[in-house]
Amino acid sequence: MTEPSEPPVETPPAPAPSWLKAVPLWLKVLAPLVVVALVVTIVVLAIPHSKNAQACSDFEKAYNALAISVKDKMGAELVGAARDSLVSAAVEAHDEASGAVKSDLSDVVTLSDGFVGGDSDAGVAFLLAAQNVAHSCAADGASITLNDF
């Protein structure tokens, strides 16, 4: 025969530290939420944001549309429309840009008259200024890729 065993002794849970008893319930609930909010804020601020992202993107789209129309030999009318669209996009991007991007877009806008007029020297200067815009956009955190003609 087996002897009856003693029933297991239940140990009471360890008492909470005295400082935890003094913390109000609302603070116990709110503190983790504040920590999460701070972590999210730090992560969002750590991601590079460009103030010029939209201006750079708009310029890139118009520039690449012109590059494609020239490369694909779409005809003088379509190339002319793409060229005019690029000049309009450069002016609009200039208006919304800031810093070095705005400065380089200013050069593009200034050179656009010669570019539209067919002056080959102005055209080369315009394309070089467009490359400067791409470099400024990249330095600002809004990298763009300009297609070759």
Structural class: mainly alpha
What percent of residues adopt helix (DSSP H or I)?
over 70%
Question: Secondary-structure element sequence?
Answer: HHHHHH
Distance between the termini: 99 Å
Beta-strand portion reads under 5%
Query: Mean pLDDT score, rounded?
Result: 84
Q: Indicate the radius of gyration in whole angstroms.
A: 32 Å
| SS field, number of helical segments | 6
Main pleated sheet:
none
Q: What's the number of extended β-strand segments?
A: 0
Name the shape in a single word: rod-shaped
Low-pLDDT regions: none
Q: Which terms summarize this structure?
A:
149 residues, mainly alpha, 6 helices, rod-shaped
Task: Characterise the protein shown here.
The protein has 149 residues and is mostly helical. The protein has a domain at 53-139. 71% of the residues lie in helices and 0% in strands. It contains six helices and no strands. The chain has helices at residues 18-22, 25-46, 53-71, 76-96, 99-117, 120-139. Helix 5 (99-117) runs antiparallel to helix 6. The chain is rod-shaped, with a radius of gyration of 32 Å. The model has no long low-confidence stretch (mean pLDDT 84).
